[in-house]
Amino acid sequence: MRKLLIIGPRIATAGVGGVTVHVERLAQWLENDNYPFAICDYKRESMLCQIRKIRKSGMLHIHVSHPMLRLFYVLLGVLLRKKTILTIHGDLGRFSAWKNWLDRMAVTLSFTPIAINQRSFEKAQRWNRRAVLMTAFIPPLDDGFLPKTVFKKIEALKTAGAKVFVTNASAMNYDRKGNEIYGIKFLIDFLKNSKCHLFVSDPSGDYSSFFRNADIENVDFITEQHSFYALIKQSDIVVRATSTDGDSLSVREALYAGKPVVATDCRGRFCLNIMTGKALNWHWVIWGNGKTRIYDKIMLSKK
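and the corresponding structure tokens:
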């Protein structure tokens, strides 16, 4: 069997984020299943190297966030006669008219587009009858690393009776309406002077720098290398205060760990919902069984 080629960012070059975590876990699961694959880190490798890998592959699975790059890799796959799977990380239709058109073309031309929420799936299905609805959540094989200083501080806070809230933000970004996507500023203001302590997973360091001179006693920004899932495991409550989302890995991870989640009502997550994971964990873990079957099915299918 010719190799599957995963085109996506790696944590080492792009930092910790929903897409990079998904790609890393997908690679781990495929390795455990002895499934033949290779990874093309498009942020690091030269275009010549990427084209060589694509030519040698049997099928492409594209995990790229920018609409123009998504379409570029789909077109490259079509030109080189490769079957392309395109996972749309995020919500279809969230960009400007031009970028949304690029996404529409990428979905239309890909062999199998994967949407990660219901609204995006409904759009994708209108443009490509082979569209698939599938969660982006892949269960972690281990908890990952949490710095000892963070672990000890959480223990001390809990001993003192404080509630530990956690949230994450890959960078300080804004949506097309000018809203801060991750809602960190809102959370900090909301929890000010409370008995709760907020830990913000801040791999880019954007929020740490922004609030460097602010007088905030009950917030810690974690900028050093760490696993957000490990932080979730130590928390009391996980917060997802985003203005837009695709299929939030943070929410899925928290539910998988059995932690309560407070999340905003964007993209199909019921209005400011407080969710618990006990009843929902295994319903959402669809990569756990037969996770490589989708690749075999697509490889063997005819256009």
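(Above: one complete record from the training split.) Confidence is low (pLDDT under 50) at residues 268-290.
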